[in-house]
Predict the structure.
Amino acid sequence: MPEPKREILDRQDEIVARLREIVPGEGVIVHAAEKRAYESDGLTAYRTSPMVVVLPSTVDQISQIMAYCNDLGIRVVPRGAGTSLSGGALPLEDGILLGLGKFNQILEVDYDNRCVVAQPGVTNLGITKAVEHEGFYYAPDPSSQIACSIGGNIAENSGGVHCLKYGLTTNNVLGVQMVLIDGTVVRLGGKHLDSEGYDLLGLITGSEGLLGVVTEVTVRILKAPESARAVLLGFPSNEQAGDTVAGIIASGIVPAGVEMMDKVAIQAAEDFVRAGYPLDVEALLICELDGPESEVDELLARVSRIAQDNGASYERVSQDDEERAKFWAGRKAAFPAVGRVTPDYYCMDGTIPRHQLAHVLARMREMSEHYQLGVANVFHAGDGNLHPLIMYDANEGNQLERAEEFGADILKLCVQVGGVLTGEHGVGVEKRDLMGEMFTQIDLDMQQRVKCAFDRDGLLNPGKMFPTLSNCAEMGKMHIHRGKLPFPDIPRF
Amino acid sequence: MPEPKREILDRQDEIVARLREIVPGEGVIVHAAEKRAYESDGLTAYRTSPMVVVLPSTVDQISQIMAYCNDLGIRVVPRGAGTSLSGGALPLEDGILLGLGKFNQILEVDYDNRCVVAQPGVTNLGITKAVEHEGFYYAPDPSSQIACSIGGNIAENSGGVHCLKYGLTTNNVLGVQMVLIDGTVVRLGGKHLDSEGYDLLGLITGSEGLLGVVTEVTVRILKAPESARAVLLGFPSNEQAGDTVAGIIASGIVPAGVEMMDKVAIQAAEDFVRAGYPLDVEALLICELDGPESEVDELLARVSRIAQDNGASYERVSQDDEERAKFWAGRKAAFPAVGRVTPDYYCMDGTIPRHQLAHVLARMREMSEHYQLGVANVFHAGDGNLHPLIMYDANEGNQLERAEEFGADILKLCVQVGGVLTGEHGVGVEKRDLMGEMFTQIDLDMQQRVKCAFDRDGLLNPGKMFPTLSNCAEMGKMHIHRGKLPFPDIPRF
């Protein structure tokens, strides 16, 4: 993380006093005990107590806070519900933690334009709750949807089981209001189609709080499908399951979700929640189809044929919504279930092109033997989004080191086959130092130039996503010195 | 347009010679007669002969050309098929016109990942042609799809009739390879889900050739729907038709397309192509539903009920694909059809929130009376994307001036009701000077800072999209001068 600024810490009292003027009442937290709740997010291995926590309740307050921080050079870490799995909301000891928890209102439901306008602290599920009585829902559904905020979803470009068919957050956001680091309030997008100019809305989505603070969102809502059914498909090998996923997609079918679990994960989940999974298979797919009933029936038949062609040894279609929920319960509990059978596990989040599934699974099994560590595979197979869980015991010899090497090998493999380091958990502090595996220095510089366009002094969430901090001022100095600065001369940050 | 650079024009011979070294053979065009084909794009009112036309055939050649232009400060205008309706590919007299016509190969068809990798000069329809024998297609379908290039589609974020259900270009592009102004070749996105870092792929899509030259694209392909049917719905008023569109969307139905025509357009189209349209209605909707047959049947019944509730006086469902094609033939020929009944027309391209359709149509009728000029309405009603055609005679009194005022009033109204200046034609030179109607100076500055991050010297397609050129160097100078540059102090470009 960036070196704390001594001159800011020395002025803490003055800063707190000014923040209390901007946010009167109980919105400014400085006592260590009260700050504890904000020390970490879902990646609890990292903890830092922020200099001060501010919980504004109006956009004007946020604008004033940002302008003040910009003037004094105070760093700002925005925080939604704090459910990030990559440390995206990890505080800085010399920084303000800007909590959006009080922005929890649905502002407008607009069925004619099929959208909802909400404050960023509304939970993901809260959007659906506001419209489900009319038969609508908000599609992206991260596992944390009961707790995670829609503002945080935008920061991380969150996914979920249904993103295969309905897209990630970026495909479902229509507009935002946001505050820039200088306090300026801007609107990007809206209820309309497309927009002239560069697509700044797309740029903001997934920018992990490094470009601005989102203070209002407009998201698309969808009509709930007429029917949905899930099928369990068991296979004698991971490769056959992987080929089946590729085969389903290649045939043109787009299931509402296709999840995959390997033998270790199946066993652990079944022991934990009794989902009714077969225990004599090496790999299990859960494939959900939705739409009109007659369409679902036909698609299920086609999925079944593809599975049979790939050697499926088990098949069971959910007979009602209760059974469908049971199928999913096992999948959703798979992480804690694996946690019950190993002292520690290391969860990866790589994404690969779908047709590489079988190859990557086979290679991962070889690595497992090489490192003498078990691995449980639970993942969004339809998206090619892997969540291998490397099982180890931190108290046993060099198992931790071996697990980390194993993890690095998996990520390198993902990149080698044309994939990426993360599918939905973001980079945050967790994968920051791995960005070089994926991007060249040219790529990283290109990203930093965009950062400089929004936040020249690097005050917004520094230390996240990128291995080094940008030095936008150096860029300017070089420019003046030489009169003209073609890109190759920009100093590497 | 930007002032031509005398020092570049003076070095024309030397520049041409260097370009001939980079692109041997017939790829460099300097003769006036041969350059004529490149003088304008689909917006033929604007014409400029470029200093030189270059038609490279490899990415390495493009990289060398860009690096050379960057070194010498030569402006570059990229061009796909030249079908832009907003002058996006209008040449500069001191600039290189970089034609991508030789990049016309499909590089890979990958059904497992449901995507096609193509060179940017492949036509939009060419993508579908490469996969239709397997039952797939590429969804965005601009009217010019037989001619327009996929690279141009990315530059303009092109739409089409089916974008209501299947999204604009930005929702169907998975990755690009592009060359930056300094010659650097980068890849953005790929065959995988999401990606870490800022979403530069989203930023590039719709950037009208101002950020880089796309040299390869990866696009999503979809399975063709099992069936598709269209229904003609006639109404005694535009308002009832507008309310029907809002009602269909509010009910949760997402048609494959919903197009609307008013009485003037209906009459003109029917006279021209005999599509079988009713002539005793004020407004006509063409609504297409696609999917499994049973779903289409049910949705057609629901659309019919909504139309009846809004007072529809005419309804006809296509009985076969031939009749469906006839319904569309009238719509697709509506522009030339209107051209047959008025000496001149001025085509607008605003977009509004759907529930404002009825209101905007009513206001437009009042304006038509005020200006004493007819207006024909032909548009993508489902998207809220209006294409009013203001009819006038340039040789009659002040009709041209009145038409322009009328047009400006329509665009202002679009912005007032929460819409934007363009839906799919782009800004280009056509709407450049109207950007101030939509954006504040703060918004425009934010966009310019992004431009500076990619192209500090403003060499890529200057004069398009933005009313003034950015002065990135000034930004740097200010920064040094004051030691610290908060955003409000950045000089207005």
